[in-house]
Amino acid sequence: MALFSGGHGRTGTPWEGRYKACLLDSADYVLRGYRYIELYPVRARLTDDPAAYSWSSYSANLGDADTRH
């Protein structure tokens, strides 16, 4: 990774600074968070149906999916 980082003017890991965390202190915020995460593939135009997106937990959270990958 040092070769990649040095060649691209970076330090640390490739994932440094990308992860953010915040406290979801109410059921409303938790549901909004789930909706945001589960519907992101649709917003990003990766799929038209969130249940059809292989890397989504949308179907599992509905209780109607085989989650073995």
Number of strands: 0
SSE string, helix = H, strand = E? HHH
Summed over residues and divided by their number, the pLDDT gives a mean of 77
Number of helices: 3
* Largest β sheet strand count, sense and barrel closure: none
Q: So what's the overall shape?
A: extended
How far is the N terminus from the C terminus? 28 Å
Strand content: under 5%
Which runs of at least 5 residues are low in confidence (pLDDT < 50)? none
Radius of gyration: 17 Å
Structural class: mainly alpha
Fraction of helical residues: 40-55%
What does this structure look like?
- One of its GO terms (biological process) is DNA transposition.
- GO terms for molecular function: DNA binding; transposase activity.
- InterPro entries: Transposase_17_sf.
- It comes from Xanthomonas arboricola pv. pruni.
- This protein has 69 residues and is an all-alpha fold.
- It has a domain at 22-69.
- 41% of the residues lie in helices and 0% in strands.
- It is built from three helices and no strands.
- The relative contact order is 0.09.
Which characteristics define this entry?
69 residues, DNA binding, 3 helices, transposase activity, Transposase_17_sf, single chain, mainly alpha, Transposase
Summarize the structure.
The protein is mainly α. Helices cover 41% and strands 0% of the residues. The longest helix is centred in the middle third of the chain and has 17 residues, at 27-43.
